[in-house]
UniProtKB/TrEMBL annotation:
It comes from Luteimonas yindakuii. SUPFAM superfamilies: ADC synthase. One of its GO terms (biological process) is salicylic acid biosynthetic process. Belongs to the isochorismate synthase family. It is an enzyme of class 5 (isomerase). Keywords: Isomerase. The keyword Coiled coil does not apply. Its EC number is 5.4.4.2. This is isochorismate synthase. It comes from the Bacteria. Pfam families: Chorismate_bind.
Amino acid sequence: MSEGPLSIATDLPASAPWCGPASPGAFRLHTPSERLDAVGCLARLPSGPTDTLGARVDAFFAARRSGPPLLVGALPFDPHADDALYQPERVGAAAPGSRDDGACLRPSAAVAEPSEADYAAAVSRCVARLDTADAPHGLHKVVLARSLRVEAAAPVDPQRLAARLGEDASVTTYVMPLPVAAGEAPAWLVGATPELLVSRRGTAVVSHPLAGSARRWREPARDAAAARALLASGKDHEEHHHVVEAILDTLAPLCSRLHAPVAPSLHATRTMWHLGTRIEGTLKDPRVSSAHLAGLLHPTPAVCGTPRLPALEAIRALEPVDRGFYAGAVGWSDADGDGEWHVSIRCARVQGRVLRLFAGAGIVAGSEPALEVDETAGKFRAMLDALGIDDLRTA
Ligand SMILES: C=C(O[C@@H]1C=C(C(=O)O)C=C[C@H]1O)C(=O)O
């Protein structure tokens, strides 16, 4: 192991559960087409805010002396907060545990924080803050989230939970060991996202934002009607348009070619319909890395709102629970600048027996509080199904 600023973090003990040689905290990122598993931690990237990510990753690979030419990790939602990336010891899955699957996942209690009524009230207050004809150029969209605190009967195994989430072949499942204070139990971010923030392979760049959503139904006719209504919804197209516009504006100066279809298409997971747009570009400068691109794009209006800073302020004022690494990004970057960053939604922070689930919805002028409560309930469904919670009675 090399000495110097980029070897094992000095601000965390070497045994810190999220990043140490003996770390059981295996990283997982399984997309519909590729699998990345990594174990252990050789070195931690000095943490920092999102806008310095590209420079920190470049410096890391310029100085690296041994180990896999790879960084894996997570960006928090708040672009001013510290991220968590590290160089794994080895790429490949850890040996499977011997835990009893069922006992790990049986939940015993769930508490909505905020309550559905308080979330609906926050949506109303948010709508009142949005741009109006009388006050143009203000806030156009804010993504407001709520959370569920679930207690399981026994400690939850993050890898088993991710495997259950992966029964939906349309999503990207992930497990990321999270930074915790000294002496705290290990914690993970575990989820199943349908949304690609950005990927870069050579000069080829892809982003696949989703915004505008409807929950799915078991009965085929009702499910098809929900999809048709989403495709016809002006409010959802507006939510979507803000995201595509922001991503195109960010990528345009960096690309010699940039393409997005004129209208979004339907994107399905097992539990939700979304409007999605696949954006493809060619980089002018091959030295612009995936970490650099993720640092520029995050947080998009799909998880934050637009304009970005007033939307961040509204979220701070209206959400009672800190998002942490929910609505950030999970992914990897390699020494060639290639990499892939997925939006960390449809997830839970898992620590021992306690899970905190998050779900958010885009609020624009005309959003109705009760419908946003329902949409976020739909977005919890994938995780609740994986936990075996059919009928959610929150305290
Ligand atoms: C914020 C979430 O999802 C995001 C918000 C969406 C929307 O408002 O329609 C759709 C997909 C995601 O970009 C979430 O799942 O928690």
